[in-house]
Specification:
Layout lengths: L1 H24 L12 E4 L10 E5 L10 E7 L3 E3 L8 E4 L6 E3 L5 E2 L14 H9 L20 H10 L20
Parallel strand pairs: 1-7
Antiparallel strand pairs: 1-4, 2-3, 2-5, 3-4, 5-6
The chain binds calcium ion (2 copies).
The site of one calcium ion has 8 residues, from α3.
Length: 180
């Protein structure tokens, strides 16, 4: 009888341990702090196709030394498996930077930061309005990268206007503007 009680207690302990491991360590980042998953970018205009993203792993590292440029696979996926940090900060072209915490599998970036200064405001809208109908493919106001500055670009700016990345979401704030 006593043995049976011990076996039940043991099984219970193993079950609880497994549950905790699944919930705490088994999602997103593993116990070493490595993200197990790629991050999917969602709710973006079909023509928006970032080639690279900047990933910053620490705000306390020397300025500019914690960031790395990574490829964006198929315009929509960022491989975070090699980053060992409790959370990472990500910046995409013309988007506000954002935090990816453990367990995050997808994110809908806010587009509209024409001048890449970390916020979407009247300056971005003025730049977009001033370049409307431009078909210069390198025009920074072509936010959705469809080859011209048009209604969609203006809608994106207006939709996200007033949204600003908080200090904790801007990573090391270095070289954001160099993201292509
Ligand atoms: Ca801006
Ligand atoms: Ca456009």
């Amino acid at each position: 009888m006593r043995n049976l009680q011990l076996i039940i207690i043991l099984l219970l302990a193993i079950s609880i341990g497994y549950f905790i491991w699944r919930v705490v360590g088994g999602q997103g980042f593993d116990r070493a702090g490595t993200n197990e998953k790629s991050l999917s970018l969602t709710d973006l205009p079909p023509s928006y196709c970032p080639k690279t993203a900047k990933v910053v792993t620490s705000l306390v590292a020397p300025i500019g030394q914690s960031g790395r440029i990574v490829a964006v696979t198929g315009c929509r996926s960022i491989d975070l498996t090699t980053f060992k940090a409790p959370k990472v900060y990500i910046k995409l072209p013309h988007a506000l930077s954002f935090i990816v915490a453990p367990g995050t599998k997808s994110y809908a970036p806010e587009l509209g930061d024409v001048n890449e200064d970390g916020s979407i405001n009247a300056v971005d809208e003025t730049m977009t309005r001033g370049n409307l109908f431009s078909s210069d493919t390198t025009n920074p106001a072509d936010i959705d990268s469809d080859g011209s500055v048009g209604a969609t670009d203006l809608v994106l700016v207006r939709l996200h206007q007033g949204v600003a990345a908080t200090a904790s979401e801007t990573g090391d704030q270095i070289d954001w503007e160099k993201i292509e």
